[in-house]
TrEMBL record:
NCBIfam families xref list: LiaF_C_term (NF040535)
Transmembrane segments: 12-45, 57-89
Location of the DUF7649 domain: 12-88
InterPro entries, per database record: Cell_wall_LiaF (IPR016975), DUF7649 (IPR056066), LiaF-like_C (IPR024425), LiaF_C (IPR047793)
Keywords of this entry: Membrane, Transmembrane, Transmembrane helix
Stretches assigned to the Cell wall-active antibiotics response LiaF-like C-terminal domain: 129-241
Organism of this sequence: Mesobacillus subterraneus
Keyword Membrane: yes
GO cellular component, one term: membrane
UniProt-recorded name of the protein: Cell wall-active antibiotics response protein
Length: 244
């Protein structure tokens, strides 16, 4: 019963927040979308101009205006108030009805029924800020599936031995660039989406990607023994896939 109440509360918070965001953008703060896009563009062009002083100034100014726009939103204040109310409610419930944990004794399973798993260290980790890239020496490959905030990601597939079949790279980014270097005999497919940025995949170039999705594939992908499938999505940034 309590779990249903929690789910209903969260669902209503999300629905109400979306309605408030729609009302705020439509009637009360029509310039919000422009200010977010403008600050995003400042961050993008500022990063592109780094380490020049003008690039740093433009980047940090854009980040300041972006955060100021978010913090001034009525929707953000609503979500902040909703979180405080939810935490207060949870605290009151824990005092009223403290959770009682009753141990459940089970007979140990037979040794032969247990399944052994092997944990492998990932090549990349989820990061809010920072630059990540594959080692400059030969390394063991693991499929990539990460979410990052602000920063670049560089993957060099020429320094590893890829397994037979399909290799997957999945990167979700807010602000930053993604560069992937692939050997000449490797077939590639790319699904990319961005709000603002550019895309360069071998000979295919998109100088301006504005709220677009891009899907490209090399001719021999379906028949290749080794192939890599790349999924990237970002708010502001560039994607580059090059032969090496």
């Amino acid at each position: 019963m309590l779990n249903n109440v929690k789910k209903d509360f969260v669902s209503w918070i999300v629905i109400t927040g979306l309605l408030l965001l729609l009302l705020e953008v439509s009637f009360f703060n029509e310039g919000l979308i422009f200010s977010l896009l403008a600050s995003g563009a400042m961050i993008y062009f500022g990063r592109s101009s780094m380490p020049k002083k003008s690039g740093k100034v433009l980047f940090w100014a854009g980040l300041f205006f972006f955060l100021s726009s978010v913090f001034s939103m009525m929707t953000f204040r609503f979500f902040l108030l909703a979180v405080l109310v939810y935490l207060a409610y949870q605290y009151a419930q824990s005092k009223k009805k403290p959770e009682v944990i009753t141990p459940v004794l089970q007979e140990p399973e037979k040794a032969f029924s247990k399944e052994t798993v092997i944990e492998k260290p990932p090549l990349f980790n989820n990061r809010l800020f920072g630059h990540q890239e594959t080692p400059p020496h030969v390394y063991e490959w693991n499929d990539v599936n990460i979410q990052t905030g602000i920063g670049d990601s560089v993957i060099d597939l020429s320094m590893t031995m890829l397994p037979k079949g399909e290799t997957v790279i999945f990167i979700r980014n807010i602000i930053g660039n993604v560069k992937i270097f692939v050997p000449y005999d490797l077939e590639v497919t790319l699904r990319h989406s961005a709000v603002i940025g550019s895309a360069e995949v071998f000979e295919h170039e998109e100088d301006r990607v504005v709220n677009q999705s891009l899907y490209v594939q090399t001719p021999g992908y379906d028949e290749a023994d080794q192939r890599v499938k790349i999924f990237t999505s970002m708010m502001v940034g560039n994607i580059e896939v090059k032969r090496i």
